[in-house]
Amino acid sequence: MDWKQTLKNKLQNSNKPKRSEQELKDEEMDLFTKYYLEWRGGRKGKSSSYQNIPRFYYRLPAEDEILLQKLREESRAVFLQRKSRELLDNEELQNLWFLLDKHQTPPVTAEEAMINYEHFLKVGDKAGSKCKQFFTAKVFAKLLHNDTYGRISIMQFFNYVMRKVWLHQTRIGLSLYDVAGQGYLRESDLENYILELIPTLPQLDGLEKSFYSFYVCTAVRKFFFFLDPLRTGKIKIQDILACSFLDDLLELRDEELSKESQESNWFSAPSALRVYGQYLNLDKDHNGMLSKEELSRYGTGTLTNVFLDRVFQECLTYDGEMDYKTYLDFVLALENRKEPAALQYIFKLLDMENKGYLNVFSLNYFFRAIQEQMKIHGQEAVSFQDVKDEIFDMVKPKNPFKITLQDLINSSQGDTVTSILIDLNGFWTYENREVLVANDIESTADLEDT
């Protein structure tokens, strides 16, 4: 085509009426839709793997979505029932024990019945589908120790199975109280669980029903004090199962539990009554709350005023007085000073400036109150410099001028250090430790002579 024809065509096109702005926009949208659909279809053709990605987020029903909430609760209940039916019942456990005993691997010794891997697999085939998960090479290897014939203890294996079944039963039982269905219990959820557990614990038969609410509060506080250090108001069910508190609580099913075990068990009736009785004894004005003056008589009555001031500054109070729940946290901290959660509680009180560490000023501030108490009791005051050096020697902090919470925990001397700073009796015990040890040795020798 020559240039003349090209110019003629251009002039002809220029004479066509121009399209409106709306027509141009419509054409643009049509083209966009066309190319987008082509691109989307082409992408599907290239790879369909994205279609296999499972859904990982499910929105929780809102408060006003009653039907969805009920549906979710029912589906969870059905799911937990199904999981419960998958567990071994008493009859199946008894049958498993008979099979294990029948397939003992010689040589038979008087000490313990043993079984090798070949017989172990035979028992697994006969025990039924519910037991398959326990009869694996991994489980056998876990329980294999130093047996010459490559066998494992039948009793150890059976105890392993029993423990697994118990953990799953307990997990399901706790999950029934997990209203949110998110794998954790709120304070009210755990309170309901323990309240309904009380009738199943023979060791709590003697408790008056009027005391149930105080008992539940006492029991729940231990879980939350140690398992919810950030005070979120909820605890993971996994954490409850992993700690020993549930074992201690369910130990109360034993009708023949010794007196010593009851006294050392926080969840026992004598322990709960002891703690609540102390609270009532401290409450001189019988208003159900404790003032700073009333709390000062706690224990041996030798906690310093400076420390008590910090307790009432940092802890939750009502018109300057402490309720039973706050008192329980206080008791748990002072009775378990070796535990990280207790040290965290006390450290927060000692860290007046909220710097995350204790320096010489902090130590001096608290120890000065100990020195004043010593003068009141006619004791010779001890030099702060000596005590400060001893504290830093015990803790050995990373920074030679600052003691962090982690330093206290790592040193395994946190209970001693905190006692020196907050309690005259604790400081006196530390100062006279050598004399006390000598007296203990003499007392032991006298008992042996008699």
Automatic annotation (TrEMBL):
<feature type="domain" description="PP2A regulatory subunit B'' EF-hand">
    <location>
        <begin position="179"/>
        <end position="255"/>
    </location>
</feature>
<dbReference type="InterPro" id="IPR011992">
    <property type="entry name" value="EF-hand-dom_pair"/>
</dbReference>
<dbReference type="GO" id="GO:0000226">
    <property type="term" value="P:microtubule cytoskeleton organization"/>
</dbReference>
<keyword id="KW-0539">Nucleus</keyword>
<feature type="region of interest" description="Disordered">
    <location>
        <begin position="1"/>
        <end position="23"/>
    </location>
</feature>
<dbReference type="InterPro" id="IPR018247">
    <property type="entry name" value="EF_Hand_1_Ca_BS"/>
</dbReference>
<dbReference type="InterPro" id="IPR039865">
    <property type="entry name" value="PPP2R3C"/>
</dbReference>
<dbReference type="GO" id="GO:0043029">
    <property type="term" value="P:T cell homeostasis"/>
</dbReference>
<keyword id="KW-0106">Calcium</keyword>
<dbReference type="GO" id="GO:0035303">
    <property type="term" value="P:regulation of dephosphorylation"/>
</dbReference>
<dbReference type="GO" id="GO:0005813">
    <property type="term" value="C:centrosome"/>
</dbReference>
<dbReference type="GO" id="GO:0030865">
    <property type="term" value="P:cortical cytoskeleton organization"/>
</dbReference>
<keyword id="KW-0963">Cytoplasm</keyword>
<dbReference type="GO" id="GO:0005634">
    <property type="term" value="C:nucleus"/>
</dbReference>
<dbReference type="GO" id="GO:0005819">
    <property type="term" value="C:spindle"/>
</dbReference>
<dbReference type="InterPro" id="IPR041534">
    <property type="entry name" value="EF-hand_13"/>
</dbReference>
<dbReference type="GO" id="GO:0001782">
    <property type="term" value="P:B cell homeostasis"/>
</dbReference>
<dbReference type="Pfam" id="PF17958">
    <property type="entry name" value="EF-hand_13"/>
</dbReference>
<keyword id="KW-0479">Metal-binding</keyword>
<dbReference type="GO" id="GO:0005737">
    <property type="term" value="C:cytoplasm"/>
</dbReference>
<dbReference type="GO" id="GO:0045579">
    <property type="term" value="P:positive regulation of B cell differentiation"/>
</dbReference>
<dbReference type="GO" id="GO:0046872">
    <property type="term" value="F:metal ion binding"/>
</dbReference>
<feature type="compositionally biased region" description="Polar residues">
    <location>
        <begin position="1"/>
        <end position="15"/>
    </location>
</feature>
<keyword id="KW-0677">Repeat</keyword>
<protein>
    <recommendedName>
        <fullName>Serine/threonine-protein phosphatase 2A regulatory subunit B'' subunit gamma</fullName>
    </recommendedName>
</protein>
